[in-house]
Design brief:
Number of helices: 1
Strand content: 35-45%
Number of strands: 6
Largest sheet: 4 strands, antiparallel
Number of domains: 1
Structural class: alpha+beta
Oligomer: single chain
């Protein structure tokens, strides 16, 4: 039983890493983002940009730090099956 839980956590970690690696390749600074992770029958990783101190409230999913990005990762292949940008 514990091996299954351990393997599941390792699998989730790899799926999350694939989303992070793609996010990192776009040149965004992770320190300027909030990251939310949802795990069910798939992994959803959402990177939401924080507000820049010099900007007011903005409409949509983009600030001076960058655009919001959501990933869906398949739990069996651990590959990104969907990537969408906030508008």
């Amino acid at each position: 039983m514990f091996d299954v839980v351990s393997n599941e956590k390792a699998q989730n970690k790899e799926g999350i890493k694939s989303a992070y690696d793609d996010f990192f390749s776009m040149g965004y600074d992770i320190n300027n983002y909030t990251v939310d992770i949802f795990i069910s029958n798939q992994i959803k990783v959402v990177f939401t940009p924080k507000f820049h101190p010099d900007e007011g409230l903005v409409l949509g999913g983009k600030t001076r730090h960058g655009r919001g990005v959501s990933y869906i990762v398949d739990l069996t292949t651990l590959k990104i099956v969907s990537k969408s940008f906030a508008r």
